[in-house]
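User: Quick sanity check before I run a bigger batch. Here is a single chain. Can you write out its predicted 3D structure?
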Amino acid sequence: MPQTPHIERHFTSSEVVRDIVIGMSDGLTVPFALAAGLTGAINSTGIIVTAGLAEIAAGSIAMGLGGYLAARSDAEHYAKEREREKKEVAEIPHEEMREVAEVFQAYGLTEDETWPIVQALRRQPSNWIDFMMRFELGLEKPDPKRAVVSAFTIAGAYVAGGFIPLAPYIFSHSTSAALLVSVAMTLTALVIFGFVKGRFTGTKPIRSALQTALIGSAAAGAAFAIARLISA
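Assistant: Done. Predicted structure follows.
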């Protein structure tokens, strides 16, 4: 009988999702907490909008730069470890062959079964080094464009998230009314974002949505309460 082709559907953009999660999470919560805190201390939407825009600009740059430096650090670490592995393959090949055998034996293969594989890898130094990087050190070769993509993804997600809680203050002259709309919009965005994040990361979407909304609410509530206490 004809067989239906097996198609595996794996999500392979985990790094991009991670960057969006980092940027969007902070973009929603930090400006939200700032706006709520200022609302508890002053009665001027203009000042809140100015402070919010300044925070979004500074926050997106800082977060984007942090993502860039983290990705660059990963790439430099990989390159350094690969050079070390390359040197070991050239200078102590028998020790490296033993380590290859141990990797396969950990999966239940016998010494006789692993020997042909070890010999085959020895004849391909570049693949041998790649194998050791992945299975001995647990390091994947980073994308050369990863640092730039990470920086812009995190920064863009931060800006997108930051304008959600700030938008009501832009279109309203009443801080109290703007705060109520901002709370509703931000909580809705946090729930939706948390749900989508849960779907992509493999966690329970409802649980992820509630956790994300709770964290954002706690941050904004704390900022508002502190501002009220100080300005009282």
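The CA atoms of residues 195 and 207 lie 8 Å apart.

User: Great, the batch can go ahead then.
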